[in-house]
Fold this protein.
Amino acid sequence: MLLVASVLLAPSPQSLRGVEARKRRAVAPATKTTGIPQWELLAALKDLNKTYSFFTVFAERYYTAARYKLITLDGPSTILIPSNIGNQFMKKKWEAYTPQQRLRIMKNLIIKGLFSKDRLLSTVPMWQFRTMNMGLKLVKMNKFALRQCYFKAPGGTSYGPLNQANMSRTKNIQVHGISLVPIPANVW
């Protein structure tokens, strides 16, 4: 009789899932720039060794050559990162920072909406680029790519659509309009 009563009073799996979901929503305020809950953003950094290795490689590539870099981080992602990795966030070279300082820099980039996990940034607000006052470098992420974008070199010369040919003509790119769209895998 006691066993039957305990079975009848036990919460269902569905109700337990609902309780957990409500708990997550209660402690996961959305960021102002992306609307993505902070726990989702920070989950992208759970594998710190992988994150540091990719980000360090990207920083080193910038100093040696301007080129596209394919990065994967816990599934489909889209990343926009300042090409000079700095000005606003860094006062010295990337290698001089401790792992904790690197993580703080990455979190700043994430919270400012320059990193979006598992979704598209359909339109990147212009104020983000103006206030940072720095060029951007395109990072190809899985099946996502920048499209419908025009940019100007520091001298004001317009190079038209953002593509691989135009990217090679200048290393310091001032982006004036960006949209991200999914593209077929065979394009690459």
